[in-house]
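Issue 218. Parser rejects a valid record. Input:
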Amino acid sequence: MSEARAAQFQKLVDQQPENDLFRFSLAQALEAAGRAEQAVPHYAQCVAAKADWMMPRILLGKLQLKLGRRDAAKPILEDALRLALAQDHEDPAAELQLLLAELESR
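Output the parser choked on:
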């Protein structure tokens, strides 16, 4: 199922490469299909496209952690936390604070 979703969203991104929502969905589908490394540039492009889009920052930061890239994850998660606080997203802010505290303690 995950591979089928990834293929579906890849086709949509191929047809409309400027559509950030399709790209975001493709990144999620790739990650769900176990193709985390391939999801990274799609999340990164979503992050670059919209300065106030919190969710791709959270997912990219978590993915970087999953891939063992703590140094890459930290500034992304810090930026996501800044947005979560500015946008009054309490649950994501709390989760991000925990992730960043864990990073600091290692």
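Fixed in the parser; the record now loads. The two ends are 36 Å apart (CA to CA).
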